[in-house]
Amino acid sequence: MIFCILAAQTWLLHEENKVVELTDPRLGDNFQEREVENVVSVALLCTQAVAAARPKMSEALEMLTGAKDISFSITKPNFLSDLRRLKQDNLQDNPLLGISTGDSRSDHKPPFSNADHTVSLVEPR
Q1: pLDDT per residue as tens digits for the range 63-96
Q2: Which pLDDT belongs to residue 36?
Q3: Which of left, alpha, beta for 118 (phi over 0: left; psi -120 to 50: alpha)?
Q4: N or C: which end of the chain has fewer CB within 10 A?
Q5: 99 phi and psi angles, rounded to 5 deg
Q6: For residue 86, is it within any domain?
Q7: Among 34-43, 85-94, 116-125, whose mean pLDDT is lowest?
Q8: Does the structure show a pLDDT above 70 at 38?
Q9: Would 54 be classed as within a structural domain?
Q10: Residue 72 included in any domain
Q11: Has residue 107 been placed in a domain?
Q12: Choice between 96 and 7, residue whose per-residue pLDDT is larger
């Protein structure tokens, strides 16, 4: 769930051209904005839902070092639409997602698990 929230926040800042807000405040102004933008773009590429849309590790490394231009297109993650729908439908109270129905009843079932551990299925290339 934390990955989902971090990825959602990153995507929204990417859409608003504000990815610099993801940097550690302790850095102050001691970084290059273009490098932050490149790292975030590569990170978003590496989290694409479809394996064929993700770069190979060697390509990601080349993009991070500047040896290769970022030539992949970054598409909006599917889970982001699910989170927005969840928020719009007010299906559950969840302060992490900014969802509050004002209804403390527990008869609403979330569309995801809040388990401490999850299993991810990785789709091969």
Answers
A1: 999 899 887 788 887 766 665 665 555 444 445 5
A2: 94
A3: beta
A4: C
A5: -105, 125
A6: no
A7: 85-94
A8: yes
A9: yes
A10: no
A11: no
A12: 7
d(CA 12, CA 37): 13
Residue given tokens 């790292």 in the structure block: 39
Domain count, the chain: 1
Nearest-10 Cα torsion for 115, 57, 14, 77: -50
Q: 3-state DSSP helix/strand/coil percent for the chain, to nearest 5?
A: 45, 0, 50
Range of the domain at 55: 2-65
Burial 108-124 (b: 16+ CB within 10 A, else e): eeeeeeeeeeeeeeeee
Q: Flag whether pLDDT at 39 surpasses 70.
A: yes
